[in-house]
Amino acid sequence: MPTPFGTFRVPNLSSDKQDGIGAWTDQAFITAMREGVSPDGRHYYPAFPFTSYALMNDQDLVDLLAFLKTLPALPGRIADHDLNFPFSFRRGLGLWKWLNLASGAYQPQTSQSEEWNRGAYLVNGPGHCAECHSPRDVMGGIRKSLRMSGGPDPEGGAGYIPNLTSHETGLAKWTADDIAEFLKTGFTPDFDSAGGSMAAVIKNMAHLGDADRMAIAIYLKSLQPLASNKPAKKAP
């Protein structure tokens, strides 16, 4: 996975007990997902979006591991990451986490509806939407004041990830029904279709029930409008 910080290589998540996660306990998996720490005590790089998964509840994490352990056991390890200095030193990740990692599972907001809270959980936790749809600082942390306002492709591509707030540069003209339909079919209100990495996201979102997709839409429509920082196109 190429990024501006170097190349990350994605590990084996099959049920192989030697090279994958087949031997992991529930607690080891929860620690990895919530704290970004491996079973042998190493910090994970935040290319693995544990900052979002940290909001997931225990039961969902245990269920996720149970599913992963049903996948075929496939041996094989990948090479280590190839990162630029100073990101090649894992020791600095402790400070990064102190700045960017909030502890504790998502706590519902009593002032909001059950549907809104479900959407907030799905968007900010397992959906980890902000990981791509937000600009980042020089250390790779999400710029909290501009969260969900869109940003450069985190995988180093030339594209720009769209604004998900209700600003005119984002979803202002979309209704909740428009968003829910897009998450199901990949078609926008203008009959355009999702492309790039979002096509894969839509493929997964289509497995959700209608109620969950609508909960996501309702939450997104509630976000404070934030202007996109997308660079203006240069005149020819």
Give a concise summary.
With 236 residues, this protein is mostly helical.
Main attributes of the structure:
single chain, 236 residues, mainly alpha, Cytochrome Bc1 Complex, Chain D, domain 2, 2 domains, 3-stranded antiparallel sheet, two-stranded antiparallel ribbon, 8 helices, 32% helix
What does this protein look like?
This protein has 236 residues and is mostly helical. The protein folds into 2 domains: 1-105, no CATH class; 108-236, Orthogonal Bundle (Cytochrome Bc1 Complex, Chain D, domain 2), CATH 1.10.760.10. It has helices spanning 26-35, 50-53, 58-68, 93-100, 114-124, 176-185, 197-205, 210-221, and strands at residues 2-3, 6-7, 82-83, 151-152, 160-161. The strands form 2 sheets. It has a 3-stranded antiparallel beta sheet, with no helix packed on it. Strands 4-5 form a two-stranded antiparallel ribbon. The radius of gyration is 18 Å and the shape is globular.
Domain unit count:
2
- Strand-residue proportion: under 5%
Helix count equals: 8
Count of β-strands: 5
Tell me the Rg in angstroms. 18 Å
- Main sheet specs: 3 strands, antiparallel
- Spatially, the strands of the biggest sheet line up as 1-2-3
CATH architecture of the largest domain: Orthogonal Bundle
